[in-house]
UniProtKB/TrEMBL annotation:
Organism, scientific name: Pedobacter cryoconitis
Origin organism lineage: Bacteria, Pseudomonadati, Bacteroidota, Sphingobacteriia, Sphingobacteriales
Protein name: Enamine deaminase RidA (YjgF/YER057c/UK114 family)
Domain of life: Bacteria
Pfam families reported for this sequence: Ribonuc_L-PSP
Signal peptide (UniProt feature, chain positions): none
Length: 130
């Protein structure tokens, strides 16, 4: 796989994403459904957004790994949250650590939604290549 990131504006260096990602000659592409803080028994979390973010990233990592891919291959990451203000106040540090840990440079969209399933407050969907 050949990966090229494009970010024509200088302010992009301060963000946790890039404006575009080009992939040439991938071995495969994995399209992940939105992952949330649901445990192995299918029970949604009642925890804080911060706790839910941790479980959501763990679930996404497990899905990607068990599919034979690596988190570093994420090229598109969409985040849905019931409050962007709460996400930036309580989860942005975790998000930055997670992105750095895996060396991810991805196109990202953060979307505030009216609601998610049950008591959930954050959902992440990813496109991963290798």
């Amino acid at each position: 796989m050949e990966k090229r990131t494009i970010d024509p504006w200088k302010w992009g260096e301060r963000t946790n994403s890039v404006q575009a990602v080009e992939i040439k000659q991938p071995e495969g592409t994995l399209y992940c459904s939105g992952q949330v803080a649901i445990d192995a028994n299918g029970i949604p979390s009642n925890g804080s957004m911060r706790e839910q973010f941790i479980q959501t990233t763990e679930n996404l990592e497990q899905l990607i790994t068990e599919s034979g891919y690596e988190c570093g291959g994420i090229v598109r990451l969409n985040i849905f949250t019931t409050s962007t203000t709460e996400f930036f106040s309580n989860c942005i540090d975790l998000y930055q650590e997670w992105i750095t840990k895996h060396g991810i440079k991805q196109a990202t969209t953060l979307i505030e939604v009216k609601g998610l399933f049950a008591t959930l407050t954050v959902e992440m969907e990813a496109t991963v290549v290798k």
